[in-house]
């Protein structure tokens, strides 16, 4: 199975509607194992039916890969079983930390940009990869503040972790864009020289401007804006291969038809960007 | 101050955990440098944190939203009660400060709130029904999402004196000292009356609550302990034929899987 095109996150309000369809309305769905494993009931059975019928890529939310808290054996076992059951081509997590001292924040908190943090994260990624039945990808996050004094830029930090862990990259285009606005850099310059050969999947999403704080927030709660769609096309042209793109929507979730229409518009962006490569 | 030998990375993550969860984040707001110094961080880190103080306070808001959202979803009535008394934020603050959310599963945040209420007794001198109300609200999620299991072998369809009733694994036979099932967002204080409830999901997966008499509740509890329906009914002074009729109805609703020999 090769994954390509623009997929959607399968969201709770849409499960019943999607399950009633004869076939998948998207090339693939993205699903968070944490929201599925260890539960049951009618909606769970519908969801399981969709996951069996359609192509699925998994994306983790809460392993706190840059943290110190140990992964519980039963959590890992459930994750591994789920990855095998869905047939996902890989599994991803954010390059961040979320829990400390056993307290989980359920937020994507940024790592300090230090050599120590690179070493620590690389060790944790390798340990997790050794447990997983599929390749592991790290995703670059949106960050609003540096955690303590930096020894390198965020770009160097992402690069060093990806190279050190020798893992795949889930390149989140919106996160690069959000960071470029909040921290004042050119997103294309940020991407130049990054290991694009490691990119196995792309994320794209909407964001929200917080006027009072003067910060662009990665909310996944709005449609994708043109500059982000344009950056997606630019990245695809540089990649020159049909890497699957996932449209994320986690808040202010609209009707399924609205999301499908947005997906189709992005699919046209995707097809045009790659057609340009083919003719070049 | 962290223990000597604590890695720099752990000191930084510990500081953020304090500032997003602990009430003393006010200290960070007032003097980020001192707050950082107290946590074993040097002048360079202090300066970086001072520079980004407002952004870290934004992270504090983001974490609080992330952990409050599942509570708002799970506890509409508890929220209505506490928000009227201007105590909701106070409850959320105390809950976050307790650091009892440890599960990587987001769905476990709401059950962690109930476990925290039980441990801390928070607010229960003022609202003696608070724990029971929150327990009942989270029970709905527990019942609706309970993992599906294949039915045990040898189930029988009909009740009999020498059989026990087998509850659906998702169903809960619970007793409360307050009529929590009668509380609503409009009238969130439950009446002071005992309630015996059989909470279950129907064939469509919808949460259902059956109000029981104390005797029928006890009969089901004894079945769960393995006592046959005939002797249990006799000890409780329940008419067995009437009880069997009721148990058949529970079975048809999906609250009971069926019956098996005691
Ligand atoms: Fe993403």
For the record, the CATH architecture of the domain at 163-261 in chain B stands as Alpha-Beta Complex
Low-confidence stretches of chain A: none
Give the strand order, joined by hyphens, for the main sheet of chain A: 1-2-3-4-7-8-9-12
Which CATH C-level class of the domain at 163-261 in chain B is it?
A: Alpha Beta
Radius of gyration of chain B, CA atoms, in whole angstroms: 25 Å
H/E topology pattern of chain A? EHEHEHEEEHEHEHHEEEHEH
What binds here, in terms of ligands, is: fe (ii) ion
Number of distinct helices of chain B:
12
- How many beta strands in the DSSP annotation of chain B? 5
Low-pLDDT segments of chain B: none
Strand order of the main beta sheet of chain B, please? Answer: 2-3-4
What proportion strand of chain A?
15-25%
Q: CATH class of chain A, please?
A: Alpha Beta
Instruction: Give the rounded overall mean pLDDT of chain B.
Output: 96
For this structure, the quaternary state is heterodimer
Percentage of helical residues of chain A?
40-55%
Helix fraction of chain B by DSSP (H/I, runs of at least 4):
40-55%
CATH architecture of chain A: Alpha-Beta Barrel
Q: Please count the beta strands of chain A (DSSP E, at least 2 residues each).
A: 12
Protein name (chain A): UPF0276 protein
Organism (chain B): Geothrix rubra
Protein name (chain B): DUF2063 domain-containing protein
Pfam families (chain B): DUF2063
């Amino acid at each position: 199975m090769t994954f390509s095109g623009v997929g959607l996150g399968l969201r709770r309000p849409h499960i019943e509607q999607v399950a009633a369809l004869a076939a998948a309305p998207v090339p693939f769905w993205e699903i968070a194992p944490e929201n599925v494993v260890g539960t049951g009931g009618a909606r769970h059975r519908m969801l399981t039916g969709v996951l069996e019928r359609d192509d699925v890529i998994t994306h983790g939310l809460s392993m706190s890969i840059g943290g110190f808290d140990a992964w519980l054996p039963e959590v890992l076992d459930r994750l591994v079983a789920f990855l095998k059951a869905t047939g996902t081509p890989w599994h991803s997590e954010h390059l961040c930390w979320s829990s400390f001292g056993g307290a989980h924040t359920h937020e994507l908190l940024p790592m300090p940009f230090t050599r120590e943090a690179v070493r620590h994260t690389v060790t944790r990624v390798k340990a997790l990869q050794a447990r997983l039945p599929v390749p592991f990808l790290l995703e670059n996050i949106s960050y609003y503040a540096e955690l303590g004094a930096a020894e390198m830029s965020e770009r160097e930090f992402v690069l060093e972790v990806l190279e050190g862990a020798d893992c795949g990259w889930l390149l989140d285009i919106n996160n690069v864009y959000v960071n470029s606005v909040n921290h004042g850099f050119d997103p294309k310059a940020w991407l130049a020289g990054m290991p694009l050969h490691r990119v196995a999947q792309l994320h794209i999403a909407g964001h929200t401007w917080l006027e009072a704080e003067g910060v662009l927030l990665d909310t996944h709660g709005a449609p994708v804006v043109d500059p982000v769609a344009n950056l997606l096309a630019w990245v695809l042209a540089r990649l020159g291969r049909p890497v699957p793109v996932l449209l994320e929507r986690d808040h202010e979730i609209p009707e399924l038809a609205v999301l499908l229409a947005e997906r189709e518009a992005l699919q046209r962006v995707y097809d045009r960007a790659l057609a340009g490569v083919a003719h070049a | 101050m962290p223990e000597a030998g604590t890695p720099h990375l752990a000191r930084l993550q510990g500081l953020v955990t304090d500032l997003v969860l602990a009430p003393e984040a006010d200290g960070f707001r007032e003097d980020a440098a001192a707050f950082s110094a107290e946590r074993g961080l040097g002048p360079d880190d202090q300066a970086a944190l001072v520079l980004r103080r407002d952004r870290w306070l934004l992270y504090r808001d983001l974490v609080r939203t992330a952990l409050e959202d599942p509570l708002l979803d799970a506890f509409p009535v508890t929220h209505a009660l506490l928000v009227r008394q201007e105590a909701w934020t106070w409850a959320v603050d105390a809950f976050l400060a307790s650091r009892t959310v440890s599960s990587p599963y987001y769905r476990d945040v709401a059950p962690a709130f109930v476990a925290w209420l039980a441990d801390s007794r928070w607010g229960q001198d003022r609202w003696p029904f608070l724990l029971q109300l929150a327990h009942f609200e989270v029970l709905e999620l527990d019942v609706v999402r309970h993992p599906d299991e294949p039915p045990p072998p040898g189930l029988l369809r009909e009740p009999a004196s020498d059989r026990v009733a087998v509850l659906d694994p998702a169903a809960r036979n619970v007793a409360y000292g307050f009529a929590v099932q009668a509380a609503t967002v409009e009238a969130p204080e439950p009446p002071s009356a005992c309630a015996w409830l059989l909470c279950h999901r129907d064939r469509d997966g919808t949460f259902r609550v059956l109000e029981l008499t104390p005797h029928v509740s006890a009969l089901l509890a004894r079945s769960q302990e393995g006592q046959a329906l005939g002797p249990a009914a006799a000890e409780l002074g329940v008419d067995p034929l009437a009880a069997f009729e009721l148990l058949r109805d529970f079975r048809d609703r999906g609250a009971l899987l069926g019956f098996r020999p005691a």
